[in-house]
Amino acid sequence: MARSSPVPPRSDVSALSKYHSAQVDVPVRLNTNESPFPPPDEWRQEVARLVTSIDWNRYPDREAIALRSAIAARHGVDASSVFVANGSNEVLQTLLLSYAGAGRSVAVFEPTYQLHAHLARISGANVVAGRRSVDHTLSADEIQRVVTQYSPHVTFLCSPNNPTGRVESWDNITLLSDIAPGLVVIDEAYAEFSERSAVELASSPGGNVVVSRTFSKTWSLAGLRLGYLIAPPDVVDMLHTVVLPYHLDAFKQAAGIAALKYVDEMNDRVMRIVAERGRIMSALEGLEIESWPSGANFVLFRPTRVDGHTVWQRLVDRGVLVRDCSSWSGVEHCLRVTIGDEAENTMFIKALKQALEQSE
Ligand code: PMP
Fold first, then answer.
1. Which pLDDT does position 247 carry in this prediction?
2. What is this structure's pTM?
3. Average pLDDT over residues 182-209
4. Pocket residue to mutate for ligand 1, from 161, 192, 214, most atoms within 8 A of Cβ
5. Which whole number is the average pLDDT over 269-273?
6. Are 253 and 145 within one domain?
7. Which of 93, 143, 228, 351 could join 320 in a cystine, given CB atoms 3.0 to 4.6 angstroms apart?
C-alpha cells in the first residue's frame, strides 16, 4: 500500500492545479508558441565548438557578466540593469520570491498568461485580478480600480498579451507606472513580433517598471531555457540575493552570447512569422470565426457556429494541435493557434475549414 508523506504539503500549494499544455502526438503542433524555425546552422556549429572549450570542472561565472553585458548592449542599457535566468519563467519566479510572498498582493488583468498568478501564489502572495473588456483591451478605469482597491506590491501587464495577442497601449503602461505603489512587470515574451516595447522605462534607478524577455520565441531557442529581465540596478541586485548560486550553467551562458550575434537571422525569422500571421488572419476572415488583432506569434480565434472545444477535437483528428482555451474565463470557446511555417499554416487553414464544415 502506498504510504502518504509524513508531512502534508503547504495547503495553499496543494490547492493549485498543474500548469500544462496538452501534449498530443500529431504532425502539426501549433499549441505552445515556439518558433517553427530552427536556430541558424552557424550558431549550432559555434555551440558545438564552445562545448569543447568550457571549463567543465569549474563553476560558471556566478553573475553571468559576459552574457548580461551582451544583452545590455543590445538594449542600450548597463549590464547592472540585466538579470538572466533559466527562461523568463524563472526570471518571474525569482522576482516574485523577492517582491511578493506571504502578506503581499500581486495584480493581474485577466485573461492573461496564467503562470503570473500561479507563480505569485506559490510565493505565498494573494492574487487580485482585474478584468479586460470583451474585446480584450484594458480600460484606464479598471487599472485605476485595481490599484486603488488593492495597492498591489507587484502588478503584471503582458504585452503582447498571451493568450489574446493584444499589444498594451502606451497610455496604460505609463498610467500604471505613474499610479502603482509597487513594481510594474511588463512581460514582453513576444515583443519582437510587435513594434512597441517598454524597455526604455525599465532601467532608470529608482524606477518601478521592469521588463522580462525570452530567447524561447523570437530567438528559436525554447530548448535552451534562457530569459532575462531589464530592471533598475537595485532590483537586479535583489534578485541576485534570492536566486540560487550558479543558477545559470556555463554552457547556457556561452550559447546565449553566441545567439546574440545572429540578430539579422532572428529579425528575418520574425518577419517571416509576421507575414504568415497576416496570411492566417486573412484566411480566418472568410470563415465563421471571430478573431482579434495580434502582435505576437499566435492568433486567438472563436468559432461562431460550432463549439470551440469541438473544433479543437476535430483539428486534432486531422493532425493539427492548437491550444484549447475554450474553458478559460474571458476567452470562452476560443482557440489559440501558434504561427507555424508556411506548410503547417496551410495545413491548419485547410483542417480548420473542414472542421467548421463537418456535420455532427
Ligand atoms: N511569458 C509569456 C507571456 C509566455 O507566453 C511564456 C511562454 N509560454 C513565457 C513568459 C515563458 O517563457 P520562457 O520559455 O522564457 O520561460
1. 98
2. 0.96
3. 93
4. 214
5. 97
6. yes
7. 351
Q: Which of 261, 279, 299 is the last residue of a domain?
A: 261
- Domain holding 91, by residue range, is 41-261
CATH number at residue 141: 3.40.640.10
Query: In this structure, which residue's CA is closest to atom 5 in ligand 1?
Result: 162
- Give the total residue count for the chain: 360
Buried b (16+ CB within 10 A) or exposed e, 305-316: ebebeebbebbb
Is residue 203 located within the same domain as residue 295?
A: no
Give the span between the Cα atoms of 166 and 252, in whole angstroms: 31
- State in Å: Cα 336 to ligand 1 middle: 15
Q: Are strands 28-30 and 320-324 parallel, antiparallel or unpaired?
A: parallel
Euclidean distance between CA atoms 263 and 105, whole angstroms: 38
- Domain co-membership, 126 together with 214: yes
Output phi, psi for 207, to 5 deg: -75, 165
In the reported structure, the alpha carbon of residue 217 is separated from the centroid of ligand 1 by a whole-number distance in angstroms of: 8
% pLDDT > 70, the chain? 99
- Nearest atom, ligand 1, residue 217 CA: 14
